[in-house]
Structures are given as C-alpha cells and as structure tokens.
Amino acid sequence: MEDNAQVMITVDHLEARYGDTPVLKDVSLDVHKGEILAVIGGSGCGKTTLLRHMVGLRQPLSGRITIDGIDITNGDEASFALALQKIGILFQGGALFGSMTIAENVALPIETYTDLPQSAVNALVRMKLCSVDLRGYEEHLPSELSGGMIKRAALARALALNPQILFLDEPTAGLDPVISAEIEELILRINHSIGTTMVIITHSLNIIFNVAHRVVMLDKSARGVVAQGDPNEMKVSSPDPLVRQFFNRQTSLSKRQLWRL
Amino acid sequence: MNMRSPTVETARAKTEFYNVVTSKDGAVGIQFIGRIDHQVAAVILKMLLDDVKHRRPRQVTVDLNRVTYFDDFGVLILAELRNWLDENQIPFRLVQPPVKAAEILTLTNFDNMDLCAPLPRPKGNPMIVRLGDAAIRTADNVRHLVSFLGSVVLCMLHAARHPKSLRWGDILVLMQKTGVDAVPIVGLISFLLGLIMAFVSSLQLAQFGASIYVARLVALSMVSELGPIMTAIVVSGRSGSAFAAEIGSMRISDEIDALFTMGFSPTLFLAVPRIIAAVLVVPLLTLFSDLFAIIGGLVISVTMLDLTVSTYVDQTIKALDLFEFMWGLSKSVVFAALISWIACLRGFEVRGGSAEVGNAATSAVVSGIFLIILFDSMFAVIRSYW
C-alpha cells in the first residue's frame, strides 16, 4: 500500500443486460491500490454480473472498465492479455480442473509464466498449499475433496502468481465458521503482506465488518450502486432504510408484523 | 508487472536484485534489493546459488531491508538457498526482516519449512494385489451391468402396468432428438452407401451382362443387413454419446441423488424414456435408410447402367418380401434397445469429475458399436439355422 490514492480498477458508466433484461445501469466505481472492496446486495442484484464484466468475461453494452490503466472493454487482445496477468479469480464453485490433481492445478500457472526449475515449482506449490492448510492433499483429485478444501485449493491457484488484484466470488459461502475465519484471516494477511487489491463478492457480515475496507451495495430495483462507504458507518447512519436493514439483518417486516407471525 | 522476458532481466545487472559481500573470515552477506516477484525469481535463484557456491562461504547472512516487494517467490529463493547451505553444513542467518516480509515468512512457515515437506508417497501395491483389484473391479462391473439390466426390465414392467408413471413429454422430445433430427444424416449416408454399392457391384455384374441384378443386390443387402447396422451406428454416435454425457453430468452434479431422494427411480425417470424413444424411432429411421439407399442405387442404375426407373423399381419389389422387412426391423429394435441401454449405463457409472463424462461418452459409443456387431452376428447365425 505505497500509494493509497492510486486507482487499480475503474468502472465507468457500465451498462449490462442479459438478453432483454437490464441488470446494471450506469454503474461507476473505483477500486484503489491495496484496498479490500466488498460488493454486497441481495440475490440477483448483479454482483456476479459486475464481477464478470470487471474481469473481461463479458463485454458491457456500454461503458468502460480499466484495470491498472489498461482498457479491457475496447482494448486490443495484447493489452487484454496483459491485464489478465495482473488478476487472479476465485470462482464461486472453485473451478478446479477435474482431470488434474490439486498440485497440478496450482502448478499450471507457475509452470506457464515462470522459468523456475521443476523442483522449485514443486516446492512453491507445497508452500502455497501449506499456507491454505492443504498439506498432504497434493496428489488428490478435486472430486475427492470437500467443498471447503476445494475453495482453499482454488484460492491457492488464484494466488499462484501473486496477482496485484484478486477477485473473490463468495469466498466463504457454504463453509463452516472455523474455516471461514481462517480464510478471512488469510485474505487479510495476503492483503497486508503483499498489498494485493481485492474485490470480494459476499453475503457474509463477518467479511463486511472485519475484512473489507469499503463496501459497495448494489440493488436489484435500482440496477446499480445504492450505497458505498465504511460498513460500520453505513450500519448506523445510512439514510437508506434498505441498507440499514441489510447490515442489521432485519426482514422487511416490522416488529409488530413479526409478532403476529 | 509487465511482460519483461527473463533474458532481458539477465541483461540487467544482477546488482539490481542483490548485493553480495564477502568479508575476510569467509562470511557472506547478501542484501536483496527492490522488487522480488515471480518474474525475476527464476533468474535470481540461478544466479544467486552459483554466486554463493562460487564464494565457498563459512556463513551466510541475508538482509531483506531494502526490498520494496517480497512474496512467496522470494521465500522460495531463501528456502532453496538455505537447503543448499544446510546440505553443506554452513550456518544461515536472516537479519530481522521488515514487517511485511516477516509476515510473508510466517504465512509460508519459513522458520519451520519441514512442516511443508512432501509426505512420503504411498508405495505401489505388489502385482498380485493389483491383479486381485482388477479382478474385483471387473466382477463389480459385470454385477453392475446385470443389476442395471434387471432394473431396466423391472422399470419397463412397472411402466407397462402404470403408463402414467412415465414422462411422455420427455419421450416425445427424446424421439425428436434421436429420430427426426437424425433423418438428414441417416438419409445422406444411406444415399451415398446406395450409390457406392450400386457402382461397385455393377463393375462385376456388367461383365456378365447382369446389371439388372444391381437393384436386387442393393435392396436385399440394405433391408436385411446394412440398413439396420448403419442406422444403429449413426444413432449410437449421435444419441448414445449424448445420453451418456447427459446422465453423466447429472451424476457429477448430484442431480441423480436428488431424484433418488425425491422418491423417483433414476432408471424409470432417465433410462426408460430414452430406451423407449430409441426403440420407437430407430426402426423408422431404418426404413428411411433403406429408402434412401434404394434411391441411391436407382440414380446409378439409371445414369450409368441404362436401366429404366420402372425396371429398377420392379426388380426391387420382386427382391423384397415382408419377411426381409420384418427381419431388418426386428434387428433394428434390438440394436436400439442395446445402444440406449449401454449408453444410459455408462452415464450412471460416472464418478468424479468432468473428464469422466468424456470417458463415459466415448465408452458408450464404443460399447454400443461392439454390441451392434456382436448381436448382428448372432442374428446371422440364427438365420442360417432358420
């Protein structure tokens, strides 16, 4: 975090739709270097759509997205490839390659993008797997692991080349509280030690309050950002009742209505 | 992080990555400088080890206070260096690192690296054990095959008594996919086959002035033999692989387990509709195949053998009787049941990941074609003793 003001990702007036259904409209946001940004919002509000646009998996209808100054929406193939080298993605389901062992999954980017000798690659893979607490599972296939292990192995693969920006889609969904806490700590330590910029899509209040530096909230009816800022401030002082509801885990029913149930 | 190639890095003076100082008593001090990341790790690792070995150190001290960026690729360099020093019993010392580097060192267990050492690989089993394993697996496969056959038969009987338990909508869609959509390719292949047969046989028959028998030859061989086989092979390739892949992906995404826990029989829900659809449409496809092959033969006979259309048709009708048609169609019914049954079985057998789905599709087609040929030879034997 040498320079906090440096912008790593800009999303500029993004508009996205699936077929005829508009999902995002006029969304603009900046992610600064070394920042952990949490993207939150109810189901179906376009969080994953936003992420898929930010990593170039989908082309926006209009608007511009830059990663570390590289335009990935209108740029050429070469600059897009350059941008891809700067990012790592943890997919929601892990997306490990089923025909490769865990070690091969993690080794793949390292072997491709560095000239390290095989023994050093193996040592590095063990180190990466050790840091996500998966020692001894090198030779296992993804289908032989539990959901939490797959997520941690996928995190190790996303971190293989220590990218400058890490996108995490629901990193702790479906995991037990202990492993969730471990992953949260891991995220913080990586962010702190090597200054990785992170964009986390999440529903977890733990991540929102204990990990994220800043929160962006999307909403389905607004088709865009309804609130952003420090989560602790938003919880108490947001003018939008919807936002306070989300942070305080309230339903849309009033107390009296709940009593009647 | 730009796309600097390693050769360019080598050209940059090594002093940009680290300084090495040797004092009089043989102590070597290494000071890393600047950004140590995955792009320079390979170069540094090679240069540094050579450098240190060359100096024959008595002791090595590493200082990280001038690095601007340090991650686990840097830790790797330190670990490899320390490994070499340990092997040669040279003491290694790390000067108190800056906070961030220290954090990365703890995260990767640098002080306790043997924690991350590889576990001993389990030894391979002796040959007799592997042989036994293979035998048990084969027996298991056979058991699975028989039990699936039994399950299909039971479900068919159940469906016959309770026709409402079948999903007729699914069957219609499957009939369209397996049958209607296959008409163009079956038609084209059969038409060409008819052309080829007529042409090749005419080369021989014309020598005896027996060109007129081309019509009989094409009609008989298509209706009783090649029509059912060609159609079954095309359906096995088109639909058998699709059945296996679809059921296989349902298996790995737990959809089959979901069906089971909702009280459905996966066989009744998935396999029976596919088998029924195939058994209904494959004979019809076979008729199309026969028809197109006869048209193919007709084209050759009329254009190259000076036969008239009416002679050709007349000869074809004389050659065929109802028995030949029924024989061909009953074969195609058996083939349809076999290829759809084995394809569903291969789908249900999938365990593990996406690679297994591909294997299941391949295996469905291979076993399907094998069964077609096997049963066709059985039919030939039966007919010769008729």
Give me the secondary-structure topology.
The complex is a heterodimer of chains A (261) and B (386).
Chain A: E1 7-18, E2 21-32, E3 36-40, H1 47-54, E4 62-67, E5 70-71, H2 77-86, E6 87-90, H3 102-113, H4 118-131, H5 147-158, E7 165-169, H6 177-194, E8 197-201, H7 205-211, E9 214-219, E10 224-229, H8 231-237, H9 241-247, H10 255-260
Parallel strand pairs in A: 3-8, 3-9, 6-7, 7-8
Antiparallel strand pairs in A: 1-2, 1-4, 4-5, 9-10
Chain B: H1 6-11, E1 18-22, E2 27-36, H2 41-54, E3 59-70, H3 72-87, E4 92-94, H4 99-107, H5 127-161, H6 168-178, H7 183-205, H8 213-252, H9 255-261, H10 266-304, H11 309-319, H12 322-348, H13 354-384
Name the descriptors.
heterodimer, A: 261 residues, alpha/beta, Rossmann fold, six-stranded mixed β-sheet, four-stranded antiparallel β-sheet, globular, B: 386 residues, Transcription Regulator spoIIAA, four-stranded mixed β-sheet, 13 helices, 70% helix, elongated, disordered N terminus
3D architecture notes:
The complex is a heterodimer of chains A (261) and B (386). Chain A is of the alpha/beta class and 261 residues long. Chain A has a single domain, classed as Rossmann fold (3-Layer(aba) Sandwich). Chain A has helices spanning 47-54, 77-86, 102-113, 118-131, 147-158, 177-194, 205-211, 231-237, 241-247, 255-260, and strands spanning 7-18, 21-32, 36-40, 62-67, 70-71, 87-90, 165-169, 197-201, 214-219, 224-229. In chain A, the strands form two sheets. In chain A, strands 6-7-8-3-9-10 form a six-stranded mixed beta sheet, sandwiched between helices. Chain B has two domains: 6-116, Transcription Regulator spoIIAA; 137-384, no CATH class. Chain B has helices at 6-11, 41-54, 72-87, 99-107, 127-161, 168-178, 183-205, 213-252, 255-261, 266-304, 309-319, 322-348, 354-384, and strands at residues 18-22, 27-36, 59-70, 92-94. Chain B has a four-stranded mixed beta sheet. In chain B, β1 and β2 form a beta hairpin. The radius of gyration of chain B is 36 Å and the shape is elongated. Chain B is α/β, with parallel strands linked by helices and 386 residues long. The chains are: A alpha/beta (261), B alpha/beta (386). The interface between A and B is large, with 40 and 41 residues.
